[in-house]
Amino acid sequence: MTLNRQPISVFDAVSKVVENVSHIDVETVKLEDSYNRYLAEDLTATHNVPLFTRSAMDGFAIRSQDSAKGAEFKVVEEVPAGSMSDYELKEYEAFRIMTGAELPKSADTVVMFEQANVTEDTFTLRKTFEPYDNVAIEGEECEKGEVILHKGSQINPGTVATLATFGYAEVKVYRVPVVGVLSTGSELLEVSDELERGKIRNSNTPMIMAQLERIGVHAKRYNLEEDNLETLLEKIEKMFNEVDAVITTGGVSVGDYDLLPKVYDKLGAEVLFNKVAMRPGSVTTVARAQGKFLFGLSGNPSACYSGFELFARPAILLMQGSTRAFAPFINAKLGEDFKKANPFTRFIRAEIDFIDGTVISKPAGFNKSNAVTSIAKSNGVIVLPGGTRGFEAGDEVQVMMTDVTSGVSHFQVKQ
Amino acid sequence: MTLNRQPISVFDAVSKVVENVSHIDVETVKLEDSYNRYLAEDLTATHNVPLFTRSAMDGFAIRSQDSAKGAEFKVVEEVPAGSMSDYELKEYEAFRIMTGAELPKSADTVVMFEQANVTEDTFTLRKTFEPYDNVAIEGEECEKGEVILHKGSQINPGTVATLATFGYAEVKVYRVPVVGVLSTGSELLEVSDELERGKIRNSNTPMIMAQLERIGVHAKRYNLEEDNLETLLEKIEKMFNEVDAVITTGGVSVGDYDLLPKVYDKLGAEVLFNKVAMRPGSVTTVARAQGKFLFGLSGNPSACYSGFELFARPAILLMQGSTRAFAPFINAKLGEDFKKANPFTRFIRAEIDFIDGTVISKPAGFNKSNAVTSIAKSNGVIVLPGGTRGFEAGDEVQVMMTDVTSGVSHFQVKQ
Closest Cα partner for A88 from A108, A65, A104? Predict the structure, then answer.
């Protein structure tokens, strides 16, 4: 409850969050429910891939030593994918073979249909073939026991395919955290309420619930009946019993009616920081109590949005063991002047576009911290370092790609 | 069923898909169910934002014409957020006001607490203030009736916040398509099956289901009891009655046992293309029947993966009216040699990383079209144009960012 909070840098603030993360418990889920979860153990190959030396094309399996321009072969058998034969090819014999089918004994190469002059049960070659042409050799992709993906990897569609290949009908993953969301502020109306003078509808709660949904996390919504210390404390204590992390919006600044600092006191919470050298959202607070995070985001929608992306998102992904918990940063050309210098790092909602392979980023409409509409138009956030100078259109700046599911391994903001 | 199919370029193939898209029907959903859906009508502001001129800071509301160095003000009332007063400020009077609260009549500026020398019920200023300092003016963000977002916009967390702000408890969106997935091939086992000689587990069906889940689309899985024309035709006819689009894997090449071309014939389907100048996946087929798409993807996992991302994904998003249906392409440095020239465009599963704002892309492990494990390690696809030359490490190449939720408005592959 002091007016003179000491701001820490954005990098230090994120580092403090990261240092305080503890992993959530592990559970076993069915393969079909595993997409977008995080592996809680290394994924190991249960057999060689390919399991057997097989044809990579539709064609004729032959012994490469028989191949030569004009050499004539006799087709002795045919093997669709999924079938196999114990027959051992002899000189100038061939199998008609389909993609994926096991190569017959002594065969080591496949001639594609279009590479042969075919006549009834025979064909002739137009050139010599090397061993293993058009063939996938047993174990060439990976060997039994090899670690394919490490613990903490996000299960993407390719991971699902790999798990299926190796017969993992179930997989150990980190549990999905349940995150409680509560917006404070007596000026807040529900979405279906008629507007009243002096009031606004609560947009932060549904926004954060969508931000949580975007990273596959379960949100639990809480409502506050009255905006006083006792009710708020009671509500947050209830949330702590029901969820794995708490996000509040509003009530964190230095105004006379901002109650959360008092709630942190009562809870005996360890406040990691309560002022960050950033605009908007300098009053963002992150605390820990009972081994759980309490994210006190600003009530201003834009500050709330970037506060979530900067602190809550990586923390919630790290709880699930993610090794790529941060939004990627990319260099882009600034599309508009920001001439006024600011000592704090500025986060500006931005529209990122990819034109001819180059990243262009311009502010997404009206840029004040209370702007809601510009969040809807943005798919990233321009980051302007704090300091004594302003920025001009054309300057190279960093852009945080918030609307990206796949992240990177480190928080990459410039210090 | 001809061996001599005419390949078309990747760009032309995608264009053919785009030309044949028709919009799916529209439905109304609750705000809390709207994330990741596509707006079926423009989103219009139902009131000015801000609705009233309000304080952007905690401080004292004054009339700017009274402000001067040393000027003394008397605090006559206090206004928390959500409250308001009809009192009209007189000369050298001030309101103690909280962020978000409506400015009293005749007040036009807010002095932050830390900008004033406060003593009991009075304070003095250290400088002059301009009108609208620390104030959000009615309608400055947007005006009633303004179109905020156009039809076809993806509903992101910011859109949810905007809908809430304007009191849209429900919103019209395009229905989520149901997509049927069927893998063909008698060599395929289920994930829980023991491996048999000559067979592999079906990894394409679960992979595609995860690719569909990634774009928020419902997948319906079908199994094939027997791999013959009659059963396959019956199954696909059944799928057509139950889903909005059909994806099959395997059965599309020129092998003797590939039945899908015959099925397309029997269905009277219009085949948009059945050969694309790309590796892997040149046999990828897209057809239309009964107003629905039929995506015939290759049975090779990597070809299946990129075939989905190139053709099925944008089609399914366009059906929902999306204005940003394509994966972004970005320029990146190639991390490895690809010296062998290929007349076809090559798609290589890649690991994209963002290091100091620069995009680095390297092939994700073993690169053959039957490689499953490298899909799991990839978050993008390197695109090497077809032609007469190979590529060297360090060459600038395009990378398709497949693992990104927010897309761009046009398919950006170089022609």
Answer: A104
